[in-house]
Amino acid sequence: MHTISLCMIVKNEEEVLAGCLESVRDLVDEIVIVDTGSTDRTKEIAAQYTPRIFDFEWINDFSAARNYSFSKATSDYIMWLDADDVLLPKDQEAFRKLWKELADEVDVVSMFYHTSLDEKGNPLYLYRRNRIVRRSKNFRWHGAVHEYLEFGGNIVASEIAVTHRKNKKTHTISDRNLRIYESYIASGRSLTPRDMFYYANELKDHGKFDLAKSYYTDFLHSEAGWVEDNIRACQYLADCCKAEGDMEGYRMHLFQSFRYDRPRPEFCCLIGDLLTEDRNYEAAAYWYRQALDYEGKELPGFSVPAYTTWYPYLQLTLCYSRIGLMEEAKLAHDKAVSYHPDHPSILHNTAFFEKFKL
């Protein structure tokens, strides 16, 4: 069977590191920990799982640290995680099965990344990341901030999910990445289109909406971005406009996303919501139905499952009932119940239809 090294970069992760390593210790042959300057018990905890702990002087460059961690691996394949990531038991079992059956020619394995879960453990937001690469291919990380891993060759898209577990002690948004980008600009360094996008994200998250909109616009005008980042830039431009009370700008940027691909479910639902607020229920129903065109399908890029399942059905229940199509409303409600029976609005509708006795 192929061997695999887990490579991680860490700093002050005493609260979450053990949970991460405990979830994968029996899945990998080697654990490589690169510490970038911890002042807490991070290295002490890491030592309980591996002797392969290395120090790396932090130089405001995540790719440099990740590439250093990869250089210390000795197995056939390399897997990477962050300290606040875990593999849940069902994904550990799926990993074991995949690894036992992995074909010799595989170069890359992608996994889902569940960045948040609902109260029942279902993902609220997910996307794919390339988590395992063949070491002999010498794939490299690029980008000082929001780094990405180059890849190629024979790629397997697995059903395994890595789950992000947020640090409970962290209640504020870190300004670390914002400061790194600002230091680049102060030094006269030019931002790549990708840097523009992620710098704009940092500005948005810190409430600097005007400047964020400027960088999102420059990013889109560069016409050099990944299509998924282009779509998200439109979404975030819309969010900035909404935060400033500019609803026309909000609407415009939702539709702007259609320039880059077919309408994605999230945008369809948001447009439907605008039309619902205007009581244009027939037009709103059209957009909710468009969102459901992706029902049961894996979306490219980033995905919010609610927008292809219970939410458009919930809204269709409202729209159909308001235009007198009660049988259609009940069918939509039944579908919403199948996905999220305990949602307060769906429970309200259940009570309504019980009284209505359609």
From TrEMBL:
Pfam families, alphabetized: Glycos_transf_2
Species per Swiss-Prot/TrEMBL record: Terribacillus halophilus
PANTHER family: GLYCOSYLTRANSFERASE, POLY-BETA-1,6-N-ACETYL-D-GLUCOSAMINE SYNTHASE
Keywords, alphabetical: Transferase
Record flagged with keyword Transferase: yes
Protein name (record): Glycosyltransferase involved in cell wall bisynthesis
Top-rank taxon, per record: Bacteria
UniProt GO MF annotations: transferase activity
InterPro entries cross-referenced by the UniProt entry: Glyco_trans_2-like, Nucleotide-diphossugar_trans, TPR-like_helical_dom_sf
SUPFAM superfamilies: Nucleotide-diphospho-sugar transferases, TPR-like
Span of domain Glycosyltransferase 2-like: 5-138
